[in-house]
Amino acid sequence: MAEPWGNELASAAARGDLEQLTSLLQNNVNVNAQNGFGRTALQV
């Protein structure tokens, strides 16, 4: 199931946006959140 932060986290990972990734992780987003395609940030 896709989660609200899943798309943002996966998108930042795909772009290599370290600033955005750091910000999201510091705000304790679920690193296992899935994007609309069912993939986690690690999988993109």
UniProtKB/TrEMBL annotation:
SUPFAM superfamilies: Ankyrin repeat (SSF48403). It comes from the Eukaryota. It holds the Pfam family Ank_4. This is Cyclin-dependent kinase inhibitor 2C. The gene is CDKN2C.
